[in-house]
Design a protein that fits this description.
Shape: globular
Strand order of the largest sheet: 2-1-3
CATH architecture: Up-down Bundle
Radius of gyration: 17 Å
CATH topology: Glutathione S-transferase Yfyf (Class Pi), Chain A, domain 2
Number of domains: 1
Largest sheet: 3 strands, antiparallel
């Protein structure tokens, strides 16, 4: 379990640490609406990872069939009201369409400056996504957003542990 120690207090759980750091570093947007959009992207990414793990269990090497399913199959209702009937088949195309729909147009995921959403997108797509197919041009803006941002130095943290 991740743990951040700040002075005499501690914060457990990745999401809580992320929100604390983002707030301290000015990465939670400039308004309540932007903060909600950042949280929305965070939740989409978390649920996308959960969906991936239904196809490729943690620690397992993904098979070609599993990757084909993740990249090329599943629900396609990427705009409008989500169809609950397809909920169990929400794979990469669905999640990327939903995330792309909430991305800003200023080169940042939300608003006009770096936010926690940019950091999380970078983390998921630039560091963890091992296989990227070239035919996902429809989602270019998402990858563009991820590739142009780097980690900024976080402050006010005395120690940060990742316990395995």
């Amino acid at each position: 379990m991740p743990l951040a120690i700040v002075g005499d207090a501690s914060i457990g759980q990745s999401a809580a640490i992320n929100y604390y750091l983002a707030t301290e570093c000015g990465l939670m947007g400039k308004s309540s609406l932007e903060a909600a959009q950042i949280i929305s992207i965070s939740e989409h990414l978390k649920e996308m990872n959960t969906a991936y793990r239904t196809i490729v269990p943690w620690g397992a090497e993904p098979s070609k069939d599993a990757l084909d399913k993740w990249f090329d199959q599943g629900a396609t209702d990427v705009t409008g009201t989500a169809d609950r009937a397809g909920q169990s088949t929400r794979y990469l195309t669905w999640w990327m369409g939903r995330i792309e729909a909430v991305l800003g147009s200023s080169g940042f995921a939300v608003g006009d400056s770096l936010s926690l959403a940019d950091v999380l997108l970078y983390n998921v797509f630039s560091e963890h996504l091992k296989v990227i197919y070239d035919d996902y041009d429809d989602f270019y803006m998402l990858f563009l957003t991820c590739s142009h941002h780097q980690w900024h130095r976080m402050h006010n943290i005395t120690r940060c542990y990742v316990l395995i």
